[in-house]
Amino acid sequence: MARPARGKKLVTRDGSKAARVTESEIEEPSGNYLSSELTLKDPARQLLIKGDVNNVLSHEEKQGGLPVSLNEVEGFRMAIDECQLEHLLCQGGFFTWNDRQLGTYRISAKLDRVLINGEWLKRFEEIFVTVLTESISNHCPLLVKWEYHSCRTNRYFKFYNMLTEAVGYKDLVQQSWRMPVKGTKQFQLVQKQQRLKRELKLLNRDRFARVDIQVQAYREEMEHIQAELQVQPNDEQL
To answer: Where is the composition biased (Basic residues) (predicted)?
Structure first.
C-alpha cells in the first residue's frame, strides 16, 4: 500500500496478541487522524506505539526551519494524555530525523518515538529504547529492549522509609534528578521518574535485599511469641 505523499503512517503493536501489528494510513496532512486513531485504542489492553509519527510535542523537539505552532502539537498532546501513554526511558541521541542539509540550513526534529500504556509496564519489568545512529534513511532506528518474566508475580517496586537512611541516598536522588533531559515538561518528568525508580531499585537490592521477606519472618516470629504468651503469660523467657 503506497504511502500518501503528504500523509503519515501509524504502526501499533498490541501486546495482548502475539505478533499482531496494525498499520493505519493517515491521509490528512493536518495529522488529526493520528489523534483519532490513538483515542480509539482500549486503555485496558497492552499498547506500544513505535515509529515515525511525523509530529513533535514542543518547540524543543525541533531545531531549525519554521517555528513549531500550537496547532501542530495540540492534537497529539491531547491524544497522549487521553490514552494515558508514557514515553519510554530513552538512551542515545535526542533528535531522530534531519533533512541532511548542512550548517544553518539543517533541520532536525524528534519525529520518531515509543509510547506505551500502563498495562504494558505491568508485564515488562525493564523496558527502554535506544536511538541508534542513522544509516541509509535520514531517520534514526529505534531499538526497544525489555526483560520479560512469564512466571512473574506482582512484584512492584515498593518505597520503604528506611531507604532514606541509607548512606548516599540523598546524593543519589539529587544527582539523578539533576541530570538534564530534553523534551516537554511532561516528558522530562516521566523520564526522571523512571530513571530515579531504577536507581532506587538498585539501592534497595544492594542494601536491603528482599526486606519484605525479612519483615514477614519477624512478624511471624512475633505472632508466635504472642500466642505463647496467651498460654504461658508468666513465662519470663518469652
So the answer is: 1-10
Burial 165-178 (b: 16+ CB within 10 A, else e): ebeeeeebbeebee
* pLDDT (tens digit per residue) in 159-171: 778 788 888 889 9
Find out whether 220 and 227 touch, Cβ atoms under 8 Å. Answer: no
Exposed, middle or buried by CB within 10 Å (0-12, 13-18, 19+), for 103? exposed
Record the pTM: 0.53
* Total residue length of the chain: 238
Q: CATH: 2.30.42.10, 2.60.120.10, 3.30.990.10, 3.60.10.10. Which one for 1-149?
A: 3.60.10.10
**Among 161, 170, 158, CA closest to 205:** 158
Distances (CA, A) of 238 to 56, 135, 215, 229: 67, 73, 20, 7
Averaged over 156-182, what is the pLDDT? 83
Q: CA nearest 89: which of 13, 199, 190?
A: 190
Chain segment 95-134, per-residue pLDDT in tens: 999 998 888 888 999 999 998 887 777 777 678 888 888 8
